[in-house]
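Render Thiamine diphosphokinase in 3D.
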Amino acid sequence: MLIHTPEPRPSHVIIYAGGQLSESSLTLLETADYVIGADRGALFLVQHRIEPDLAVGDFDSVQEHERIWIREHSGQYIDFDAVDKDYTDTELAFNIALEWLPEQITLCGVTGTRLDHTLANIHLLRKALDAGVETRIIDEHNLIMLTNSSLTLTRQPFPYISLLPLSSVVTGITLDGFAYPLTNATLRIGQSLGISNEFVKDEVTISVTDGYLLVMCSRD
């Protein structure tokens, strides 16, 4: 697999995958300097007259004429055999972006009706965090991040903020700027203590001593 490494290396990579996507997600392109379309996510971009810098996947979810259209309107086009590959199309795109160690990766179209894919994509946040790359998942109703140290957030257009452990236990959780503050708290998988908190300040902080904590800003 030959992929041209962009020069200079991008600071913000956005990946559009084949889950639920809306036109509002295209506003995120204003802050991106490299765009990857994963399988049907590449088709979404091309349909909106946006040429991805890279289109990657097995393209088994598009028609043949759509695959040709994607290939003709992408900076680079790399396809994989649908059987002889070990990763989902989203993870293929994500692994490529992660190799470049950008400052930030944004994942769009990685949630939807397939809960198995959604959970697998949320788990990618841990791989990114361990590599030191700030990564977030965004859809119409959610902004999802992961921390194992501290995180500062400004008030979001999502009124609710929930905390869920991604490791079996998260300790030393301290919240500032929330309707329901916590100090040196512990969350274990299976608990709902961290669900549906709210902002009371324009800037909030979350800190943990040990473990991986999902931070999910949501709206109905």
